[in-house]
Each structure stands twice: as C-alpha cells, then as structure tokens.
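Incident log, support desk, overnight shift.

02:14 A customer reports that sequence design results differ from what the structure should imply. Their input is reproduced verbatim below. On-call engineer (initials T.W.) acknowledged and began investigating.
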C-alpha cells in the first residue's frame, strides 16, 4: 500500500487492496483479468492503451453499434489512459506513471520502456508482473498452448480421430488469476520487507503446471495406459448425461457410494444393479469400478430418464444426494434465478453497451461482494490521471494532446 493512502483508501473487507495502485499495459484475457480482479478487490488500476485501443478493443462479441461487450466485461472498475505507443514522450509519461504506482502488470513484449531492470533502477521496490506466451519469450495464446497440453486429444466423443479444443480459454483465465495472486503476494511481501519483485508468468507454464497437478503428466511418465476419449463420462468415477422424454439433457455424477445408491433407488434399478455386481464379481461402491462399467450402468438408468420430462427428473433428483444439472444455453443461464437473484451479479449501466447484470468477484467478504463498477472507454481518464498522479497542468495536458502523445476525452469532445 502507498504510505500516502488517504483514509477513504484504507482497506475494508470488500476492498482489501485499497491504496494499492496498478498500471496495466495489456490486451486480450490473462493480463486484463488480472487487473480487473485487483480492481474488484479495491486496487486503483490504470489500464494504459494505445490511442484508439489495443488489439482487443473491438473484439467480439459486439453490440449493434460495434462496441465490444468482451472488452467492457474484462475492464470493469479500471481507469483508462490512452497514449501514443510510438512516441518517446508518451513512453516517459507511462514510465513515470509506473514509477509512481509501484506495480506494473503487462503482457506486452519487446518494449524497452516497460523493462524491469530500467524501471527498478528508478524504483527498487517495484512489483513487475510479465505475462509471457512461453518461458523463452516467444508468442503463444490460449488456443495454441492448449494444442500442446494433450487435453484436445482426450476431449470430445469416443472414437473421434481429430483433436477438439475447448471453447473456454481455461489457461488465460487461470493465468490471470495466478497473476492477481502474484501481485497480492508481492504487495504483502513489500509491506513486510520493503522489497520489490520481478514476476514472470508464462501462459504455457500455467497450462503445463495444471496438467501436472491433475496427474495427467505423471500418469504418462509412469508408463500407464494413455488416456482416451470418453465423451461426457467422468474419468475414474461414474458420470454420464441422459436424455429426458422432452428432449432435454441432464448431467449426472455419482462420486460416492451414497450418490450411487440414491441413483439406483431413484431409477428403480437397485435389484438390477445388485444382480449385475454379482454377475460381474465387482463392487459398485468403488468409483473406479463404476467407471469401468459405465456403459452397462448407463443402459440401466437411461430408461428412467426417457420416461420422465426434465421438470419431473429435476424435481425427483432434487430430493436425493445425486449431483445433477440440466444442460443450458447462455441465454437460459442469463435469465436463471441463480444469476438474476445472485448478489454477485449487480445491475450496471455500462456506457456504450447498455444496462445489464455484471458479476463482481465470486468471493464474498463478511457476507458482501465488492461493488461492480463500469468499464471506461479508451482515454476516458487520461487527463485526470496526469493531473492527479503526475501533477500536470491543464495547459501541459492540452499540449500533450495536441502533439498526439496522449488522448483525452476533453480533446475528443471539443
């Protein structure tokens, strides 16, 4: 925390990072998600972009007016500073903002004015987070990283020959949260020791670490049989999807003996499952055994689902311990009470986008979620930031804008 933090910047339960200022020079998902997470937690996050916006400023999905819903979603609660990234004067200003803030988060590469050694020579306690594609500095994005992980080879229906990418940018999301955790950890360390930190976070290593932590790599290194594709089945336990009489699909997971017992009782297959155990000489209390015999068990349970509507099935399942959920579209989820009545989601009037429910953090603090703030437009806060943090006068700011070094909304609206 800055030693000059005012009383209204002091941490509260929903703003534990109040008083921390972060400069973010970023684009796409991981680094912006880091900055937004920190902003949700009370940090003052200044996103620095080229004049007109970075490569993600108009990324899909778009409104009918070609405004990026995606960009607004990942930049809530930040302030926007727009500068000419080709202008040495702008480089100096951005450097000064970073030195003043003391924390930089970036995924920009090859920019000397963002170099840790140069910046830390001026401010030794600088916290500098560099998100890379690969550890060697070469470029990579979520979808190319994913191709190297092995996950596309085990995703999708059985007997499919081609790889299947997941739609969710899982590595970007994980990387962004790791980056936010690294900032919070480094800020805590700086408070205790006064030391700065250089943090390097390769997107590829996030994916590889996850594959290792979940046992996929050790499984291969130990010479165990290669993992296959199992469709919607859950590897190593019992999980499957079933179709109801009205064509809906429900995912069922039975992790424990109790889950499995309730599933057989619900579907009226207790005796049949017991007979199957005896015939096969197995014990379905073992989740691995349930996985091995998932197809025949699925045949037992499928009849019950085919004879019930989704409403009937959900009502019956709700009275059991069985883990279940109906497959939904984004549109169905958006109108679901778990979103519309969820205190994590708060109504905002997002300029250029419209009024909608937007999420805060999934964590609540002392029973409250941090407030949701809107996202700025490119350059919305340039003038205010130059005045507040660098002490520039209106005339000095106007001169910078006139020279094309920065973009201010005052200049745009004149």
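02:41 Re-run completed on a clean worker. Output:
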């Amino acid at each position: 925390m800055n030693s000059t933090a005012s009383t209204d910047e002091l941490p509260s339960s929903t703003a534990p990072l109040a008083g921390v200022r972060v400069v973010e020079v970023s684009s796409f998902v991981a680094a912006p998600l880091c900055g937004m997470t920190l902003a949700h937690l009370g940090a003052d996050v200044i996103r620095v972009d080229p004049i007109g916006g970075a490569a993600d400023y108009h990324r899909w999905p778009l409104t009918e007016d070609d405004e990026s819903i995606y960009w607004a979603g990942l930049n809530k609660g930040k302030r926007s500073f727009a500068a000419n990234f080709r202008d040495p004067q702008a480089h100096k200003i951005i450097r000064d903002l970073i030195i003043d803030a003391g924390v930089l988060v970036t995924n920009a590469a090859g920019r000397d004015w963002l170099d840790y050694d140069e910046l830390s020579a001026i401010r030794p306690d600088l916290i500098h987070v560099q998100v890379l594609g690969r550890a060697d500095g070469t470029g990579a994005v979520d979808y190319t990283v994913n191709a190297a992980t092995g996950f596309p080879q085990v995703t999708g229906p059985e007997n499919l020959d081609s790889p299947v990418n997941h739609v969710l940018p899982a590595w970007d999301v994980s990387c962004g949260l790791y980056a936010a955790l690294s900032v919070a950890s480094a800020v805590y360390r700086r408070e205790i020791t006064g030391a700065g930190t250089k943090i390097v976070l390769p997107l590829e290593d996030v994916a590889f670490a996850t594959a290792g932590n979940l046992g996929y790599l050790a499984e291969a290194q130990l010479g165990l049989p290669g993992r296959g594709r199992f469709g919607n089945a859950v590897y190593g336990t019992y999980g499957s999807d079933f179709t109801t009489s009205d064509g809906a699909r429900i995912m069922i997971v039975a992790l424990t003996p109790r889950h499995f017992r309730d599933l057989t009782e619900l579907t009226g297959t207790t005796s049949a499952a017991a007979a199957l155990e005896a015939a096969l000489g197995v014990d379905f209390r073992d989740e691995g055994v349930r996985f091995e015999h998932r197809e025949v068990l699925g045949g037992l349970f499928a009849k019950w689902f085919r004879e019930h509507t989704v409403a009937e099935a959900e009502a019956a399942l709700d009275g059991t311990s069985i883990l279940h959920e109906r497959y939904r579209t984004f549109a169905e989820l958006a109108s679901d009470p778990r979103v519309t009545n969820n205190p994590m989601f708060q109504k905002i009037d997002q300029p250029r986008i419209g009024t909608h429910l937007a999420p805060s953090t999934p964590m609540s603090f002392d029973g409250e979620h941090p407030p949701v703030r809107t996202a700025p437009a490119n350059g919305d806060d340039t003038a205010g930031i130059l005045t507040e943090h660098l002490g520039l006068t209106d005339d000095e700011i106007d001169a910078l804008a006139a020279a094309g070094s920065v973009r201010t909304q005052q200049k745009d609206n004149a």
